[in-house]
Amino acid sequence: MDQDDHAVPLTELLDERRQLLDVAHWMLGSRTEAESVVDETYRRWYGLSGPARARIAGPRAWLVRVTGGICLDRLAVPGRGPVGAAGVRPGTEAVPADAVLEEVDEVLLGALDSLSPEERAAFVLNDVFGMAPGAVSGIVGQPEQECAELVHRARRSLRARRLQPTPPRQHDLVVRAVRQACLTQDAALLTSLLARDVTAYFDGGGKVRALDTPVRGSLQVAHSLLTLLAGCPNTALQARSVNGRTGLVVRYDHEVAAVICLDIAGRQVIQVWTILNPDKLRSWNRRGDASSPPGG
Q: Do residues 90 and 114 touch, judged by C-beta distance below 8 A?
């Protein structure tokens, strides 16, 4: 796009939109959602004044950055159902056989759901689309070194899942064992259920005094989880469906206070993502989950 939006070859305009759709599709796993994101991206573009658009030296880079930001916001919403090749949401289209998608195993698209939003974004932008480190950093909102670490963790997690795929029933059993270990404050049992290099993330969003850096190692993660979930009156820890697979939901005074996603390879947890940010838990409470009866 130039100052005059009409003075651009049609092929360039179509290629630009296709790139944005591909980025959004790989970040969210749904072609329908990708269309919605790209539409919103262009609405923001045309929401700028003419002079403001003219000052943007690289319109396509700006559009990709906005698309990535919108996708990150959507990935952070709790309760997202399974997406991607392993579990396309009802009403979404099959994975299109275009050049980009043909290069990546369909199983990978489904496995991306196991990653944190930042890991998924960094991995997709870096490994799938080959964007420069600075561009990835600008979209993810982390320094380049942090983004490189996110990509490394994503690769390790995906590699572990491919080498040791976990059937849903096995995933459910491991999660319920983790729940039992937390309920009984059994450090030895919990540690045995965690991979030696397990990583835990605690998303407080700056609104809860949560750990603001990842915790690594089975002993350290076990200690952090047991401390966080130490039993007290009016608290319940339940096994519930989270992102299409069994996760843990913590209630305090009948209100959802935390949602925990567990990434499992084989019989061990390799990643823990704990959402504590009250803003991200609103939909859990708004939809009535807070009043649901305790479950196993």
A: no
